[in-house]
C-alpha cells in the first residue's frame, strides 16, 4: 500500500469543518492509500489561549495522533515555534524537533497545501511531491519568511505537480515555470444535496464559512441595517464579536458539514461577502457558492477579483451595502426561475467525485 503524507490545515478531529484537502485525504484513504494527514500545528503557547487550548490538549497531552478511518491517521503537528510567524532559518531548522518520526519517515507521495506546514516540504522524503495551490500565499497571515520559503520551493521546481484551484492561481504558479501545472478546482458533494427540495421564500440570508480576515462583516451588518425585513444568520469559525451586531443578524457558531444541506434548505439567499484583498483576487468559485446553488439558494456576492468570472450569471453582485442589498433582492427573485435539474447539470463537472477521480488517476501513475 502506497504511503501518502498530506500537509493540510483543518483538523478532522478538532475542527467542526471540512475543506478541500480533507475531501482529498478521505478519498485517497478509501481508495487504497495509507494516508498521514498533518493538521495545523500547536505550540505550548496554545495552553494560554482559550481558542487554541483544545488543540494543545490534543497535541501535547494526548500524543496528537488520531485514527480517523482504517487508512487515515491525523497528526496534530507539535512545533517549537508558531509556524506562520517564523522569521529566521534557526527557527525553521528547529521547528520540527518534536515530530522526528514524521520528518525521518519516507513516503511515496507528499501533498502540501498553501500554509505554514509547507515549511517542511523539502524536509520530508517522498518520491513524488504535489502542491495543492488552494490560496495565494500573500495576504494569508504568514510571515515574509514563510512566504519567501514557499516561493523558493516553486522557483526551484521542487514540486512534481501543482494543482491550482482557480485560473488566477494557475497563472500565478505559471510564473515559476512548474514541471506540471493543472487546473483542479474546488468541488461540492452533490450526493448530499439530491434530496434537498428548497421551496422556501422566507427572507432569510445565510453565510457559512470561516470568518477569516478577508470576510467583510461590516458589509453584512451595514446591509442588514438597510434590509430590516430580512434575517441574516451566520455560521463558522473565528467569529469576531467586537462589532455591534444589528438585531436582524444572529451568529450560530460552527456548523457540521453533514448538516450543511439541511440547514441551507431553510434559506433563500447565500452570501459571499469578501473584502477586496490580494487573497480574494485569485478566488473564482468558493466552495460555499456551489453549496448554496446545490441547496436551491440564490447567491449574492461581491465582484472583486475573479468571482464574477468564476460564478457568472449564477450570482448577483454588489460591493457597497446598497449594492449588496440590491444583489440580495435580485438573487431572491432569480432563484424562482431556476430548476434543480439545470443547477445539478451546471454543477456536475464540479462534483467532488469527478475532481477526486482526476486527482487519484494522476497519483496512480506515480511509480
What would your notes on this structure say?
With 367 residues, the protein is α/β, with parallel strands linked by helices. It has two domains: 2-187 and 352-364, Rossmann fold; 190-347, Rossmann fold (3-Layer(aba) Sandwich), CATH 3.40.50. 31% of the residues lie in helices and 20% in strands. The protein has 13 helices and 14 strands. It has helices spanning 20-29, 53-61, 89-94, 100-103, 144-155, 167-174, 217-226, 260-264, 287-294, 307-311, 321-334, 340-347, 352-364, and strands spanning 2-7, 33-42, 65-69, 72-78, 106-113, 125-133, 161-164, 181-183, 204-208, 231-235, 249-251, 269-272, 298-301, 316-317. It has an eight-stranded mixed sheet, sandwiched between helices. Helix 1 crosses helix 13 and helix 7 crosses helix 11. It is globular, with a radius of gyration of 21 Å. The relative contact order is 0.12.
Summarize the structure.
This protein has 367 residues and is an alpha/beta fold. The chain has helices at 20-29, 53-61, 89-94, 100-103, 144-155, 167-174, 217-226, 260-264, 287-294, 307-311, 321-334, 340-347, 352-364; strands spanning 2-7, 33-42, 65-69, 72-78, 106-113, 125-133, 161-164, 181-183, 204-208, 231-235, 249-251, 269-272, 298-301, 316-317. The strands form two sheets. It has an eight-stranded mixed β-sheet with strand order 3-4-2-1-5-6-7-8, sandwiched between helices.
Oligomer: single chain
Quick one: CATH class of the largest domain? Alpha Beta
Spans of 5+ residues with little confidence (pLDDT < 50)?
none
Determine the N-to-C terminus distance.
12 Å
Average pLDDT for all residues:
94
Structural class based on helices, strands and sheet pairing: alpha/beta
Amino acid at each position: 500500500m502506497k504511503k501518502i503524507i498530506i500537509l493540510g490545515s483543518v483538523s478532522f478531529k478538532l475542527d467542526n469543518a471540512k475543506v478541500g484537502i480533507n475531501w482529498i485525504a478521505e478519498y485517497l484513504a478509501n481508495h487504497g492509500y495509507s494516508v498521514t494527514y498533518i493538521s495545523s500545528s500547536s505550540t505550548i503557547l496554545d495552553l494560554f489561549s482559550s481558542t487554541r487550548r483544545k488543540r494543545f490538549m490534543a497535541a501535547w497531552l494526548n500524543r496528537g495522533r488520531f485514527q480517523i478511518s482504517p487508512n487515515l491517521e491525523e497528526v496534530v503537528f507539535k512545533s517549537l515555534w508558531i509556524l506562520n510567524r517564523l522569521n529566521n532559518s534557526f527557527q525553521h531548522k528547529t521547528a520540527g524537533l518534536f515530530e522526528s518520526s514524521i520528518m525521518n519517515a519516507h513516503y511515496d507521495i507528499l501533498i502540501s497545501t498553501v500554509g505554514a506546514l509547507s515549511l517542511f516540504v523539502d524536509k520530508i522524503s517522498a518520491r513524488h511531491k504535489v502542491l495543492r495551490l488552494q490560496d495565494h500565499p500573500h495576504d494569508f497571515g504568514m510571515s515574509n519568511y514563510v512566504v519567501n520559503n514557499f516561493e523558493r520551493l516553486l522557483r526551484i521546481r521542487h514540486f512534481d505537480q501543482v494543482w491550482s484551484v482557480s485560473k488566477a492561481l494557475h497563472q500565478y504558479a505559471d510564473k515559476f515555470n512548474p514541471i506540471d501545472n493543472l487546473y483542479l478546482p474546488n468541488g461540492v458533494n452533490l450526493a448530499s444535496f439530491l434530496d434537498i427540495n428548497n421551496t422556501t421564500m422566507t427572507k432569510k440570508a445565510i453565510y457559512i464559512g470561516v470568518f477569516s480576515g478577508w470576510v467583510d462583516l461590516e458589509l453584512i451588518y451595514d446591509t442588514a441595517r438597510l434590509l430590516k425585513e430580512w434575517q441574516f444568520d451566520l455560521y463558522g469559525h473565528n467569529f469576531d464579536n467586537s462589532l455591534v451586531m444589528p438585531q436582524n443578524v444572529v451568529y450560530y457558531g460552527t456548523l457540521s458539514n453533514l448538516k450543511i444541506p439541511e440547514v441551507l434548505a431553510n434559506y433563500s439567499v447565500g452570501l459571499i461577502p469578501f473584502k477586496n484583498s490580494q487573497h480574494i483576487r485569485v478566488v473564482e468559485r468558493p466552495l460555499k457558492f456551489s453549496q448554496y446553488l446545490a441547496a436551491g439558494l440564490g447567491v449574492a456576492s461581491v465582484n472583486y477579483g475573479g468571482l464574477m468570472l468564476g460564478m457568472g450569471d449564477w450570482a448577483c453582485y454588489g460591493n457597497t451595502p446598497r449594492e449588496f442589498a440590491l444583489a440580495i433582492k435580485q438573487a431572491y427573485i432569480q432563484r424562482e426561475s431556476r430548476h434543480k435539474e439545470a443547477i445539478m447539470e451546471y454543477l456536475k463537472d464540479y462534483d467532488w467525485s469527478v475532481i477526486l477521480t482526476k486527482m487519484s488517476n494522476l497519483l496512480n501513475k506515480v511509480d
